Amino acid sequence: MKKEALKLWMNLPADTRRMLLSNVWCGECRKPVTIVDYHAELRRVVVLQGFCGTCGHKVARVIDDCGPEPKQNLE
């Protein structure tokens, strides 16, 4: 995981992280699954990319509540 994304991810409560990891949509299974072998990237929001724990298909989860605050233009 990238350092900044990992820091933001780890700032979430443990129970919230567990809930997010076990509620990722898999297009192959067509249901929510657990993401495995994931990594986090920061793209204005934290994005977890990994694989479906059931079928192995690539999955991703966007976590927009833990990204950095946008800079405000104070004019």
Produce the secondary structure layout:
Layout: H1 3-10, H2 14-21, E1 24-26, E2 31-33, E3 35-43, E4 45-52, E5 58-63
Antiparallel strand pairs: 1-2, 3-4, 4-5
Provide an overview of this structure.
There is one protein chain. This protein is of the alpha+beta class and 75 residues long. It has two helices and five strands, in the order ααβββββ. The strands form two sheets. It has a three-stranded antiparallel β-sheet with strand order 3-4-5. A hairpin with a 4-residue loop joins strand 1 (24-26) and strand 2 (31-33). The longest helix has 8 residues, at 3-10.
* Beta-strand share of residues: 35-45%
Question: How would you sum up the global shape?
Answer: globular
Helical residue percent?
10-25%
Strand arrangement within the widest β-sheet reads: 3-4-5
Oligomer: single chain
Structural class: alpha+beta
What is the residue-mean pLDDT, rounded to a whole number? 88
Radius of gyration: 14 Å
> What order do the SSEs take from the amino end to the carboxyl end, as H and E?
HHEEEEE
Low-confidence stretches: 71-75
Question: Helix count?
Answer: 2
Number of strands: 5
What count of domains describes the coordinates? 1
User: Whole-Å distance between the termini?
Assistant: 36 Å
Biggest sheet, open or closed, and with what strands and sense? 3 strands, antiparallel
